[in-house]
Amino acid sequence: MRTTTNGSRWVDPAPLEVARPRLPWWTMLPTWVKWIAAPFALVWVTCWLLFHLVRVIYRYPLVIITAVLVGWLDWKAGHWTLAFVLAGVALVLLLWWRLHRSSFERFALPEARTEYRRMSVYACQWRTVMRLSDLAKTSRGKEYRPKLGRVRSEGWRDRVRVTMIKGQAPEQWERHASGLAHSFKAQSCRVRVRRPGRLELDLVHRDPLVRPFGVPALTEDATAVDLKRLTVGRTETGRPWRIKLLGTHLLTVGATGAGKGSLLWSIIWALAPLVRSGAVRLVGIDPKGGMELGQAPEVFQRVVYDNGPDAVALLEEIAATVKERASRYRGRLRSWTPATGDPFILLVVDELADVIAYQSDKQLRERASRAVQAITSQGRAPGVCVLGLLQDPRKEVVSFRHLFSTRIAMRLDEKAQVDMVLGDGVRERGATAQEISENTPGVAWVKEDGRREPVRARAFHVTDGDLDELVTYVTGVPTQRADVLAFPDRRENEREGGEVA
Ligand SMILES: Nc1ncnc2c1ncn2[C@@H]1O[C@H](COP(=O)(O)OP(=O)(O)OP(=O)(O)O)[C@@H](O)[C@H]1O
C-alpha cells in the first residue's frame, strides 16, 4: 500500500517473514514425564552410540587397530620407539611385496585397500552423489537416502552394497549406472540385486581379462569331463568359465574377429577325451567353405562345408535322430545319460544365418529352419546340443533365440544387437557387449536362462599348434601342417641365372 506523507513517497515494507523456531515435541512434556523418561533415553543414546562405535570398528578394523596400537606404543614407549617400530613394519611389508607379491596382494592388500577406498571415495561422497543422481528423496521435510553398506575393493572393481529406500526399484539404479560410474571415477557400474531391497554395485576400474589365457593341458581321464561343467576360459573374477552342454543349446554371436572360433575350439578342447573315447560325437556345418571347422576336420565325425542340400540333409538326419531317441527313451528315461550307450551329439553350425536365413533356395531354407527348430526344441533331453555361431543377429535368427538357453554375446557393433542376443534388460544390468575392445578377442558376456545376472568371461586362446595337438590327441596320428614356403625372390633368381650365364 502506497502512502504519501508531506509530499514524500514511501513504500510499505514486506511483512517480516521469520521462521518461528520449532522445538522438539518432547520439550513440551511436563517435567515429571521427562524425569521418568530420562533413564530410558540415556540407555537408548548409549545403545545408539555403541552400535555406531561397533559399526565403525567393523568397517575400519585395520585403521582402528593401527591407531590404537600406535597410540598405546607412543604412550608406553615414546616417540622414538614408535618411529623405529613403524619403520620396521614398513620394511617387512616392502620385503613381503618384493619377494612374494601374490600372497601380499592376497592377504595384506585387500583390507587396506577396502578401508581406504570406502573412506576416501564412497563414505565422503555418498550423500552428494545420491542427492545429485536423484536417488535420494525428500518427503514431508525428511530426507530418505539409500544406505551405503559393505564395500569390498578387489583392485579391478569395488563391490558396494546398498540398501534402497522404500519405493525404489533396481531399474532406477540401472538407469543411473553410467552417472554413478562417472561420479565414483569408475569405468563402468553394474547393478546386481542381492535380495529384495538390497543391491550390489560393481564399480569397475580396469579389465582383468586384458591378457589372453592359454589352454590347459589335455586330460587323459575321460571320467573327469562333465558335460554340465566344461571349462572353456576364465571369468573376470578369476574363476574358471564353465559351460553346460547337457540339456541346453548355445548361441554365440560376435562381429568378425570377436573370437567366436576360440570359444568353439575351447569347447572341443574340453570335450577331447570324450570325443576320443566315442562318448561324444561332433558334427559340423561350416558354410564359409571350411575356414573355421576346416582347421581340424579330423575331430568331427562329419562336416559339411556349405549351406546347400548336404547341410540340410545333415540337419534333417540329426532331427530324425532326436525323434528316434525321444521315442526310445519315452517312459524309460527323463533324459540322456552315458548309460544309454548313445553318444552325446554336439552339432556346430559356424554361420547359422547362412543356413536358415541367407540360403537363396526357399525350399532348402525352410527345410533347414524346420530341422534346426526341431533339434533345438526337442534335442535337449535326447542328448543333442546345438552350438550356433553367428556374426550378425538378424531377425530371422533371433526368432530362434528363445530355443538357446545359453546365449553368448562377444564383441558386437551396436547396443540393439546386444538386446537382440541376450534379451531385454540384460545390457542395463551391465552386459555391454558393444563396448568389448577389438584388442580383447574371446571376451564375452554370457546369459543363461534362469540366472538373472550375466557373466563376463574370456575363452582360452587356441592356437594352430594347440589344434595340431588336439587332432593328434583325438586321432592318435601326429599331424603335420603344410610348410609355408617363402615366396621366391626374383632378384635372387635373376642373379643366380646371371652367374650361370
Ligand atoms: N580367446 C582369445 N584370446 C586371444 N586371442 C584370440 C582369442 N580368440 C581369438 N583370438 C585372436 O583373434 C583373432 C580372431 O579370432 P577368430 O577368428 O576366432 O574370430 P571369429 O569371431 O571367429 O572371426 P570370424 O567371424 O571372422 O571367423 C585371431 O587372430 C585369434 O588369434
Automatic annotation (TrEMBL):
Binding site for ATP: 254-261
Residue span(s) of domain FtsK: 238-419
Pfam families documented for this protein: FtsK_SpoIIIE (PF01580)
Any GO molecular function: DNA binding
TM region(s), chain numbering: 32-51, 56-73, 79-97
Domain of life: Bacteria
Alphabetically ordered keywords of this record: ATP-binding, Membrane, Nucleotide-binding, Transmembrane, Transmembrane helix
Protein name: S-DNA-T family DNA segregation ATPase FtsK/SpoIIIE
